[in-house]
Amino acid sequence: MKYQPGQSVVHRLHPVVKSLWLIWVTVAVFVFSRGTYSDPATGTGWSSLNIAVLPLIAVGLAVGLLWISGVAPWRIPGVRLWFTLGVVILLLHITANRAGDPIAGPITTAGLATGLRAVGRLLAVILMSALFVLTTEPVSMAYSLMRVGLPDRWGFALVTALRLAPVFRAEADHVYRAQLVRGVAYDVGGPRRWYLMLRHLCLPLIVSALRTAHSLSLSMEGRGFGLHKRRTYMREVAFHGCDIVASLLLALSIPAAVWFSWGLG
Amino acid sequence: MIRFDRFSWRYAGASTHALRDVTLHIDRGEFVTIAGASGSGKSTLAQAMCGLLMGRQAGDAEGSVCVGGKDVADTPLHDIAQTVGLVQQNPETHFTTLTVRDELAFAMENRCLPRDEIQKHSDEAAELLSIGHLEDRGLSALSGGEKQRVAVASLLAGSPDVLVLDEPTASLDPEASRDLFHALADLCRQTGLTVVIIEHKLAHLLPLEPRLVVLEAGQIASDVPAGSATTAMHPMIFSNETAPSREARHKSTTTESVRSDKPLLAVSDMSVVFDGNIILERVSFGVHAGEVVALMGPNGGGKTTLLHAVSGLVPCSHGTARVCDTEVSPAAISGLAKQIGLVFQNADHQLVADRVRREALFTSHSLGRTAPPAEGEADRLLEQAGLGDRKEDHPFRLSWGQKRRLNLISAILHNPPLLLLDEPFAGQDWENATFLLDVIDRIVHGSLEEEGTRPRGACLMVTHDPRIVLRRCTRLLFVCDGRVSVDAPVREAFDQLRQMGHEAYTPMEDD
After folding, report:
1. SS3 category, B496
2. ipTM of the complex
3. Same domain for A116 and A204?
4. Topology of domain B256-339+416-505, per CATH?
5. What local confidence, expressed as pLDDT, does residue B257 receive?
6. What is the pLDDT of residues A28-68, one digit of tens each?
7. I need a labelling partner for A170 at 20 to 30 A (CA). Which of B82, B242, B337, B351 fits?
8. B2-238 — its CATH code?
9. How far is B82 from chain A (nearest CA, A)?
10. Which of B463-497 are b and which e, b meaning 16 or more Cβ less than 10 Å from the residue's Cβ?
């Protein structure tokens, strides 16, 4: 799964606003959907499916945003697996949790509610993370973070990691092939293959990584990186109207979630 | 601008000086080439003028190096870097960011220039190296030559007085090398920048009339003023004429008689598609015993992919390749290893063992060839390669040239009939190249004891050096845009290349 370029409003959102939303949703679906089942007759606790509402809203939000950003949710790699896992979790809850009022057959309100909540939490986190990765260019994320206060060194550690990942991958590929034709029996299966890889692949890759890191540090130092405490940026990362709206919505959703979860008791 | 005064440098632990008593003055605006065989100290000289030796690496220094009036030994690196910009061999390890625009801005951002000024200077630098049209591109999408230009431009943006390039064309094809040198010469003329190029491939550099400084064993052997170094000099400097190859002697007896045999390597209608891109398209050719075939062409044209497809490392999407009558497929790699000796472009990539001698014998051993002849042969070849006293050393401790010799030895000890070599001569001086050529000769024509017998092997090698092709190859394949556009005996092929406008690949008159 990697960044898919696009022009949708989700793509254009400021990466920092997007990451705040991601963090908020991930926290909210766990913190604000708590509550345990108790007897409705005594008036304590909840008696309906309320606990599943927030996670399901989050799933709906994620699906809606994926649709807006032009990514079909079912095209996300691995989504079927997660969905199947969700169904299994739901069935487990329904069969295992017999508290609450019966709805139909073995299904009870508590079983259905806790089941839907678990599935909602799972899918909300998965889909929201996927949305973030698919619509955020990693480098602009790094640059945006530096603009809002992440130290340059950390930011550029991220940028160079993004830059070198494919370089090292190609390197590993080359070394693997070169050794394969030398007669290293990588084409045998099982644990022996892992042993051989550990034994023969590591050193050339570490040597090349160290060498790369050395010349990269020369190149960065030679161009004055770290010379001053601060640096300027040519990239403009501006807040647009949509960022302000998204931030406002974020700010409003916090008290709303708190109020809602109070209702759950 | 740059003053070396009786400067000597010895790396810690080394018995000899890397540089000895070097006195060299380079003035502002000069266009200088520093040449020399590998191990002659040219990279050390470059590092000294960029402030990367004293205080940065362990060793003893004598004499002084001054850059822009400041003694390098007691000036902080970022200060020297304002005066001298260093372009390293591999642009891949120079880039810090992911796009051309960010890379050009990087140095100026670090110096806290305001946005509009960064923009202005980036545009100017891009203009000077004619990469304006690339500004919005990602760095990974550029060709090798474009990458080196961006690397140069990214240094210009910091407005240095001197630009030092350490073998900038090591990974470039001849056309890209020629264009880069021209761009640098223009830059020097237009801006008054001092340009120092460390290089041992001089064919495309000497026509630009640089001042030529030649190093030998850490000392300045000659210093030819600008305009006096002519192309006629360059074979004299490096190509101490080698003995005519045995191939030449064999020629008359082999080529005709072998043609009727089955080819050692038969490629028919082969296509390779990768990620939806056509890398090779319907390539067909055969290589017979006794042939040494040169594979030339622009980088990215499919040469390396061709070698990999032939050895089964890359699956063909159409057509077939057969080596010694065995059909090549990824499933058959271990079986093919017996028939093929493949040497990769990067010397480090195929080192697998922890001792030089074990490394040499690795393939023979993993193929179950433990008989003493291979061991004796290994010792003999290592001795010839000057590695006799390094047998118990770790291969990673060898120099680049030594590793290259070891690579080839380790690829031939199991006696494969087909040698596939990817730029074996890149970064090698003539002496190393001669050793490699003799080893190739031995695979193709059998060992000396078998003199007079029919040739038993063949070699297909990627190389950019027309002098080697002219002297030692029998045939030339030119691969461009995934197709074989020329396939002919060497001299004929060079004529065709000239007609096609690819002069950069052809030898100069006095070669």
Report:
1. helix
2. 0.79
3. no
4. Rossmann fold (3.40.50)
5. 43
6. 988 877 665 555 554 444 446 677 888 899 999 999 999 99
7. B337
8. 3.40.50.300
9. 8
10. bbbbbbbbbbbbbbbbbbebebbbbeebeebbebb
